[in-house]
Amino acid sequence: MAELLLLGALWGASFLFMRISAPEFGPAALVFLRVGGAALLLLPLALLRGQGAALRRHAPALLVLGLINSALPFALFMVAALALGAGLMAVFNATTPLWTAALAWAWLGERPAGLRIVGLATGLAGVLLLAGSEADLRPGAHGISPAWAVAACLLAAALYAWAALHARRRLAGVPPLAVAAGSQVAAALLTLPTAWWLWPAQAPSAGAWASTAALALVCTGLAYLLFFRLIANAGATTAVSVTFLIPGFAMAWGWLLLGEQPTPTMLAGCAVILLGTALSTGLLAPGRRQKQ
Length: 292
Known about the structure:
- By secondary structure, this protein is an all-alpha fold.
- The chain has helices at residues 2-25, 27-48, 52-57, 59-80, 86-93, 96-108, 115-133, 146-170, 176-197, 206-234, 236-240, 246-258, 264-280, 288-291.
- 78% of the residues lie in helices and 0% in strands.
- Helix 2 (27-48) packs antiparallel against helix 4 (59-80) and helix 2 (27-48) packs across helix 10 (206-234).
């Protein structure tokens, strides 16, 4: 339980660090620094554990995973960080299991039934509630409107869902550490040219650098290691339940450190989305406890 709470706190803090660093670095440079720092932490560990052959053998699939599970969604969330609070971004991130269920239905023919369909509908209602409250098309201080930021968050969550299905089909049986390290190396290579081209003209502050280092090494590299440790020791279902902790931690960090006050609409939308997620993933299915 302590590891699960720690992981929720780390991934919740990632939205805080994006809020701090994105305005100074810009999304392009920040996403490269995030994945590059994580790669520097994870790749040596994977090689020390003899997983170099797995990295080479599955390089094409890892390249795709790095694109759709890190490079693109991280960039989208960093764009959103220019207009939305940390807590709100985390709530939209929590729609990933809903997208996974919907894509598995459309792509793999895994038709949901009963409460899972109710869960998808409930989660969609929560998304519409929150998106409607942020549907302002007027650009903010950084040129991004809240409405476009919401769209970026939802697209990022959909990419995470696609990545999960891609990993299930193309990387089944590959050691998790190799998947994490390979995908981060791939993402770093993919984002390097854009980061070089769009590197900030004004040097970011020491605080922005510190925030970026924490985002890369702690909230990405260390969090990946903790996540895979949870999967090994407690099972995938327990590890994935961190989804329910991230929005709360993100709201708490944003409130404590940035003064971002959660609104009643945000809290209500979060509750509806998490309820829909629990139903659509089967976590609230009747008799679930007895079947385990």
